[in-house]
Design brief:
Low-confidence stretches: 1-24
Number of helices: 14
CATH class of the largest domain: Alpha Beta
Bound molecules: fe (iii) ion
Distance between the termini: 36 Å
CATH topology of the largest domain: D-Maltodextrin-Binding Protein, domain 2
Largest sheet: 10 strands, mixed
Number of domains: 2
Strand content: 5-15%
Helix content: 40-55%
Length: 349
């Protein structure tokens, strides 16, 4: 039995024995996390030292966490949920797994475009780090000015060169949702069709595979999140250094709407028993101290306004001062189903 299921069964048994939900005064926080970085550990220890609130952490991947929450329902011990990408956060939100909160601290610290759309009840999910979705290209085949925008991925000039992971992957769904928001439905769908027409191969693999596809010559251009590039830059393996020597990075739309950024984010669980602790933890994540750990653990950028973190790998790829898109990530929730239907129509696998 995994520690995850043992933990949740104990929690359910404890609640049943009491005949009532666990008391809210407990100095405890049950955290379901899709992030598992060493640096996150140090951050959680500091939270416990400064607040006296003990963190019980349950690790699983994004899909595993959502499945658990659904299965546990109202008996779920989860207080805070950490997921990666606005598309996943929006989907979990649409399934009723979160609850809205109001926090003046979070309102002040995190830009509104990196959070769920606010309602009268408050905000459900909040971003705590950002990552950019960039274009990598082969400078031997493609000029920098031909990959200066996402729109150019549909330009016939790039025929037979474009590689991406599945169009339905959350990273692509989120990007496409903001492209469609900017261009409108008709031009947005035409753009998706143009990208499909330019593909070097049917979508497959993850972002790292697309970067390697460019290095091997199979692809001329590809889409990837920045931290995958940073991992290869930081790698000491000769084969990784060879990959980086063959590719360049473009931060698209610098002259227009800015490069698409997504988030890793958190929300308070719908049935949180330790709600106050959960809000306190969310606010802690926005502190400069926690932001440093949260963003650097995966070579990401802080979400807090005006906060910068030095990361040599980010500098190497030209990402230390780029213009980011400001389309609210709340539109990902709004456009997700529509974009999926467009992908089906244009045959984007
Ligand atoms: Fe990823």
């Amino acid at each position: 039995m995994t520690s995850f299921s043992r933990f949740s069964m104990l929690a359910i048994a404890a609640a049943a024995a009491l005949g009532a939900p666990a008391q809210a005064q407990d100095k405890v926080l049950n955290l379901y996390s899709a992030r598992h970085y060493q640096t996150d550990e140090a951050m959680y220890d500091t939270f416990t030292r400064t607040t006296g609130i003990k963190i019980n952490r349950v690790d699983a991947d994004d899909a595993g966490i959502v499945a658990r929450l659904r299965a546990e329902g109202a008996a779920s011990p989860a207080d805070v949920i950490l997921l990666v990408d606005a598309a996943r956060l929006a989907s979990a939100d649409a399934q009723g797994l979160f609850q809205p909160i109001k926090s003046a601290k979070l309102d002040a610290a995190i830009p509104a475009n990196l959070r769920a759309t606010a309602t009268a009840e408050g905000v459900t999910w909040t971003g705590f780090s950002t990552r950019a979705r960039v274009i990598v290209y082969d400078p031997a085949r493609v000029k920098a000015e031909d990959v200066a925008t996402y729109e150019q991925l549909a330009d016939p000039k790039l025929k037979g060169m474009v590689c991406t992971r599945s169009g339905s992957h959350p990273y692509n769904l989120s990007l496409f949702a903001t492209v469609v928001e900017r261009l409108g439905d008709q031009k947005g769908e035409a753009w998706l069709k143009g990208v499909v027409d330019n593909m070097a191969r049917a979508p497959k693999g993850g972002d790292t595979d697309q970067i390697k596809g460019v290095a091997s010559g199979e692809c001329g251009v590809a889409l990837t999140n920045t931290y995958y590039v940073a991992r290869i830059i930081k790698s000491t393996k000769p084969e990784d250094q060879a990959v980086m020597s063959k590719v360049r990075v473009s931060f698209p739309n610098q002259g227009t709407s800015g490069t698409h950024v997504n988030i890793a984010g958190a929300a308070v669980a719908r049935y949180a028993k330790n709600r106050d602790n959960a809000v306190q933890f969310m606010e802690f994540l926005s502190s400069p101290f926690a932001q440093d750990y949260f963003a650097n653990g995966n070579n990401e950028f802080p979400a807090v306004k005006g906060l910068k973190i030095d990361n040599p790998a980010i500098k190497t790829m030209g990402g230390d001062n780029f213009k980011a898109e400001t389309v609210p990530l709340g539109v990902v929730a709004k456009n997700m189903t529509k974009v999926q239907q467009m992908l089906d129509r244009v045959g984007y696998k």
